[in-house]
Amino acid sequence: MKNKLLLLIFMGAILPACLLAHPITGLLERIDPGASKKFVIELKKGNTDFFELDQKGRKVVVRGNSYVNIATGIQWYLKYYAGIHLSWNGMTAKLPDVLPAVTQKERHETDLSLRYDFNYCTYSYTMAFWDWERWEKEIDWMALHGINLPLAAVGQECIWRNMLQKLGYSKDEINRFIAGPAFLAWWAMNNLEGWGGPNPDSWYTEQEALQKKILKRMREYGIKPVFPGYSGMVPHDADAKLGLNITKSELWNGFTRPAFLQPTDARYAEIAALYYEEQQKLFGKADYYSMDPFHEAANAEGVDFDAAGQAIMTAMKKVNPKAVWVVQGWTENPRPEMIKNLASGDLLILDLFSEARPMWGIPSIWKREKGYEQHDWLFCMLLNFGGNVGLHGRMDQLLNNFYLTKNNPLAANLKGIGLTMEGIENNPIMFELMCELPWRPEKITKEAWLKNYLFARYGTHDPQIEQAWTLLANTIYNCPFGNNQQGPHESIFCGRPSLNNFQVSSWSKMANYYDPTVTAEAARLMLAVADKYKGNNNFEYDLVDIVRQAAADKGRIVYNQTVADFKSFDKRSFARHSHYFLDLLLAQDKLLGTRSEFRVGRWINQARSRGTTEAEKDLYEWNARVQITTWGNRVCADDGGLRDYAHKEWNGILRDFYYKRWAAYWKTLQDQLDGKPEVKLDYYAMEEPWTLAKNPYSTDAEGDCIEAAREVMKLIDLK
Q: In the predicted model, is pLDDT for residue 12 greater than 70?
């Protein structure tokens, strides 16, 4: 008996080390097989978040007080010692046989201990159809960039299905309520019901299994997931079905919205408890729960906001007394009346758009005079809306706003940073800058940081590359204070044609802020050294992206020339410029086909791969196609204004969707110049067939990106 007990103790001591020493081993091996043997990883206690870089013989030592901080140190080392930058366009790299030595110990600390990731919209605009392989890469990306508090929203529809079944809803009723894969974010945010569905049973089974894998890996790293909590959402017919006292909202851009269960209703606590019970059965408990009642709700009259806040908090605390409520700081939310009587430390507010419209008290159109008062909050960068493609940033504003928090009394409860973009896999430079800010207590200059970033990105110092990026950093990546546009300068190619086409989506608030010829100059500088960096993955990705932007900017210039020709009745110039515009669009399409990241086939094939039958594959493909085009049906697209909100400057959709719109429009204008009557195009009728089509698109890159970029530049440089 004694020998058996000793054996059990011995096995318990060695098994974890045998199975996996720590999650950093797996991370390093996924970056480059054999890489874990080149590092010494040391987990040390510390009262403040830190990482250290050091040397032990031929191995690099990375220390930290958590595995996420150690991973952040690895990314820092790879960037600034080895000239290796891991981001969405490349999460693997060939490390040198002998790593560059850390000649002097380097230590970074931060008191910004919470680093958040994701907007609900990210889960639909980018991540709607991800499988475990793609999620594994993203969790590694998070760890490398210091993220320790991500929204974990996969599988929330499984919780709701189980809860509604317990409440007596039939399968058909549930299917009419829960949205399809590409629209789950707006269902979860109380914006719509059912659109994109019904989801097959296999979807729920797979999402549940996927979320369990995601949570397991997050917890191995020590990452704390933020679970979607319960804030009162119920189906719009819950008054008739369940006899509940609910508040119904007006339509959301043509969609029926879920209702809000009044916190004073006798069954509020019961339904909230049922939600958390089903969540706990599937995924366990969390220390953070995300709830955004009244999100973009125009009609919240009659709601007792104080009572709502108390009811939401009470229900959450019954699950986990230590739990913190995470809420978005966006437009009028969180309502001051809802949070005024909540205790300090129980609420964490995401100041969603800190780089442009901060609400915590510094100059902004959304300024709150007293900030968030007693409540903790995070300084967040939104940057991207709709998952749109386009170079964009607010480098000076981001740096200025961030460092203004340092000695500002309204920022006394600042606890960290957040990435709250609607779409990812774009503008790696801005995400890199944002994620480094907590670890740089002294204000850095944009110029000094950029030079170091470019070495990290390309593994070299090149004056022409630095010149190109300095142009971009001072123009398109430096959207100024007072410009409140939502996301990148939208490509004219993606807009519904008209004689007054400026912004593409209905709410972008675009305003010109940079010289459009600057992107072409930056593209020329990059092309001048392109042969030297052929095969450099990061360089080739950036080259395609910059030349793409230059083509879009040139397209806007040519569009204005073409409209001027029409208004001047200059038939010959109109014909020349309208054809030039279309040639630019098609050349851009060909260029984007040289990188998988810029192909519509990648998005569509992700969707189809999640289906287990042809019918499921077709449903998911339809979800994918609709979201990036019409977004909704005719009423929601046209009258609601949702069409083209998630437009994508991608290979495939440019030639098969956007080109056809523009070619048809230019023809109607040419016909008018030729004396034929004006024809009003029905754009939705032109667009819907593409959403219903099943023509295949390849995921794989085709062609030489440098040669394709040169061809585009020849077109751009035509006089």
A: no
